[in-house]
Amino acid sequence: MSVPGRGLNNAAALERYVGVMENLRADHLGALETVYANGARFVDPFNEVRGIEAIQAVFAHGFAQCPGMRFLVQARAVDGDCALLRWRMQCDTSSPGLSIEGMSELKLGGDGRVVEHVDYWDPARQLYERVPVLGWLMRRIRARLAAPDSPSR
């Protein structure tokens, strides 16, 4: 049995990962097995899971909440076994205007598959502020905590 990614250098492994993520679809979550190690850890602002089945469940839930979800990687860097991605996630017309920008920190295993994935993005600004009452509250808190001459005020 061959191991996915065996023999790939980390830059090539990252490109393979990007290709899978940019082409990921709700009916093809099995592709995640080719880029995540079996016991991989996945963390984002709402989830912390371990294992390929749990990671697939996170993405399945994402597709259920955001039909037509698509990822576009805007920038990437790799240094040793650490990789960084800047990305945008967009939903189709069922959630007009929903676009989330974030960063992912990946740790690559010896076979080129991801053993740890940590996402960094701001749910307050990118999600909560879209909810009518909660959005008003989040904008008020942000304005109150921002420096006096900050453009985010």
From TrEMBL:
Pfam families: SnoaL_2 (PF12680)
UniProt-listed InterPro entries: NTF2-like_dom_sf, SnoaL-like
Record's protein name: Nuclear transport factor 2 family protein
Coiled coil (UniProt feature): none
UniProt domain SnoaL-like: residue ranges: 21-117
Organism from which the protein derives: Guyparkeria halophila
